Amino acid sequence: MIQPNDFKEKKIVVIDGLNQSINDIKIGNNNIRLYREGKCVDQITCCSVICLFIIGEATVTTKLINTCQQYGISIFFLNQSLKYYGEINSKAEGNYLLRQKQYHLTDDKCLEISKKIIKNKIINQLQTIQSKKDINVDSCQNLNELLGVEGSSANNYFQILFKDIGWYRRSPQTREDIPNFLLDIGYSFLFNYVDSILRIFGFDTYKGIYHQLFFQRKSLSCDLMEPMRVLIDKQIVKSYHLKQINEKDFGFKNGSFFFKKYEYSKKYRNIFLKAISDKKDDIYQYIYGFYRYMMNSQKYNFPNFKPC
To answer: Is residue 10 in a domain?
Structure first.
């Protein structure tokens, strides 16, 4: 298991395979090396990588996959629109003690943990919009009630936070407007990043607590990213204020928005990756705290994620 001090040196690495000659990604002397037209154009030591995003076309070797597994590096594949379509995950499936604890959580314990996660999320939202409104999480008697409180809070939060950028509603995966399109991209990067760290500890990320079991959904990763979503929300507002978001970068077809050029997708991708990288230590400490709590809730308190 990676330790906090070691994690500080870890980086998110992105390899662009769009508008480039075909990329070959190989291993040499424990370095991840990028080749174009047979020539090595860049490299980075495996010791400093936590996850690798490959966008567009590229070829990878079995040696690369094996070495990434050894170093705890997860690999994610995205298309031109930065939509995730595949992965090769680093995981520690041998941590059976942790998984036993996951699988044997009682309904009452799941509700208790879910309340902590959503309370943390709502507090972060309220602090972001500088609201002192009371939240009613502790009185929820089941997950459905908790879901209702979360949804009501989120609706008010987005209306206030995005009031100056033409906000209508949150509509995941529809790309019906630019803010929703950007939220989907930012959340996707955050989700994959959280998932890669959870797997380092040996969690079964399909076994959620607040998000229940659903076919092919990594419910635990959905759970743990909830308090962190404000990182993406705040970055979008900041980018609008800095004039980094330009409506001319986007096209609209068949009811959804898309990037007109690859250069535009690269710009927005880098914006979100920097927002995540700037808080990578806090993200790791939160997940590390969750791991310790799951292993011994009598000794360790449930962690809180603070975006500021």
So the answer is: yes
